[in-house]
Amino acid sequence: MKAVVLGATSGMGRAVARRLAERGEALFLLGLPLTELERSAGDLEQRGAAGQNVGVAELDLADPRGFESALDKADRALGGIDTVIVTAGMFKTQDALEEDRDFLYRMLHVNFTATVLFCEAARKRLLAAGGGTLCVFSSVAGDRGRKPVVLYGATKAGLSHYLESLDHKYRAEGLRTITIKPGFVKTPMTEGLKAPPFAGDADGVAKQVVRAIDRGQPLVYAPAIWRYVMLVIRFLPRFVMRKIGF
Amino acid sequence: MPLSRGLGRSYGDASLLASGDARALGTTLADRILSFDEDSGVLRAEAGLCLADLNRIYLPRHWVTPVTPGTKFVTLGGMVASDVHGKNHHVAGTLGRHVESLLVRTGGGDVLECSREQHADLFFATLGGMGLTGHILEVALRLQKVPSPWIYSESYRLSGLDELLERVKQSSHEWPMTVSWVDTVATGAALGRGILFVGRWAEAGEAPPSFPKLRPTITMPFSLPSGLLNRFTIGVFNELVYRSHFRPTKTGFVSPDKYFYPLDSILHWNRGYGPRGVTQHQSVIPWETGREGIRAMIETLASAGTASFLTVVKDCGEEGEGTISFPKAGMSLALDIPIRHDTQDVIDRLNRTVIDLGGRIYLTKDGFTRAEDFRQMEPRLDQFLAVVEKYDPARTLRSAQSRRLFGDRS
Q: How large is the ipTM?
């Protein structure tokens, strides 16, 4: 595997990259800032990434003008790319988003527009090389309109929709699109929030993600129980959704 | 500044909050390995790195931490803050001896690289300083190259305390790793009977050719009722352990996991003690009075009608560099004591013996010692507090333990 990971410096992205490194896959890291990327690259090299040298390039997900050159660097370093993993994203609670217009604007842009544009760039490269795997982290927050995730959930709903369509359209051509929908996972992104029942940890999610990449499984809820939690929530009538706080 | 908390394996209140509205800072997400130099063996990592991870990554390459505590579910930072010791203390000292440098964010907010050459007072106070000098951000530690990933182990069944202590002391001249399990319930001539375990890293030629398998773990699914582990049931357990060592001597190759971390195979083993839980009392008593002290403490448990489930006796080597680090030359006794209404009284009586015989206790295990007793055991305390004051003038870093023992404001 020759994988590019956007978001490997923390949380679930770090955990996925570690699992890939430990089985000797070749990795290239994209993200910000360079010092963090280099620290994570050093960690992955020690954990056994192939070639011992994990390359890095700065990429600001908010700025699509830098996507092609960053992917070029990854392509050159790895000698071709067959897997692209995107775990980067922004989050704040609904209350915090309502108070911080600048952050909200950035989040709406990064989580949907910029992520989709990055996936488009990655998709074209993978298809040109005959196919591959595009594995992108969305969220259970996009599965149903809910009070606590009005704004964040909207970005993830759009992203999930895009990713599903991509999988339908290009799987026959060899591009396997994998949508990961984490429930509540204890990572730096959810720091300070009270963990609900069924909260997962980053490494447990990573284990599911790597298995899904190996099998080309198009949709993963992580931890797995969230598949059933969200199944119930998707079927709750509106008058119930208006009453509950979940 | 909030107190750092790693994996929470201290037995007492070292990583608990000083007050209800305080916050702790979890360190386990900062767990990256930053560099490793195969020539010098120096590993530099973020302090939240778990020892289990470190072992998993480096044991296959025949590198280990030169000192390991009795559980692998600890962080590097926690190992430094407790200045942990292991079965090889008499030859390897505490972990601190192998620490090259630390990156610390002091209570005052400065981020300082400290070592034996740079900010040495901070470095030594941080080794065994229970996280009270600052946040340990990064640790540079010299790993040890081992000839194989296996331990060669021998164990001997010993019939009484005198024989056991004699053999513990004697075996330390011959073996790099020694530890003994003691039956604290048996009385009369059998008082202090036990099993002595000695070992060393196996040589490449003699070790099994395969890599040791990770043992499966079982999980204690729920809390047993408090009081199920009592003097009677512990006595039955001790009898079984002692008798199951059929032959007077056993030898063999064992995995480091089984050898160093026997309790880690039962996840949530603490639930066996029920909701009231367990405390530990670990002390070290100088050689001259060690035998007397251990006998007195076993008798204290008997007279209180309680017992220790896992009792460990080990000889300690010379005192290390940590300003208030625990070990010093003598006999160390670790008692696991189920918590009851009279636990404070039992600990007070044990501490009286420790003080009278010139010993001291291990803060990582402690949740009950009184401030006045600790001060009597620890003449180095003022020196430690002076360093804390220097780097954290407002004394912002506090734990439930520091509040109890040093009178820190909550």
A: 0.90
